[in-house]
């Protein structure tokens, strides 16, 4: 703003007469300049006042989870984290710990305890050799008409390999246990908005309904 003040002073000085009184023809120009200057200052201040609430709104409306957090949520469900899930007991501990870690990153949430219950155990997915056979037959009825009958049959067998004289099935993947429900106890869960965020996050990552998630305030 200092450059604008200096410019006005120089312009006024050049516009004044010898006795310091503005000339008639220059008086209206000086008034217009002052009015335009005041309008410019008002617009500048107005833009700053508008920009501040917009920045605050963007901050308040930012998502709870970043893209990196979302990837961590996916890792919990798929088991793609650094630690191997292993047996069902290890898998439960793995899910509980990772879910606890990600929930504690939510603003306003701390001291999280998580318990995930499963309704089934981990299952192996075996490679199958599927053979499909299609049969077509033409039948004649008593009235001289014909009709075509299509039949399809499938035969599926698990692929076996010989390991040291013992035949074993080929495992191509594992089906993770089905989640029955989740209980979350955390500080900050007494706030309805935070409790809703926790329920939505857990339901999303575990692929369950929100009614299967119970969120409780931690006893202080």
TrEMBL record:
InterPro entries linked to this entry: Spore_III_AG (IPR014195)
Biased composition (Polar residues): 56-68
Transmembrane segments: 29-50
Spans annotated as Disordered: 56-82
Keywords of the record: Membrane, Transmembrane, Transmembrane helix
Protein name: Stage III sporulation protein AG
Taxonomic path: Bacteria, Bacillati, Bacillota, Bacilli, Bacillales
Gene, per the UniProt record: spoIIIAG
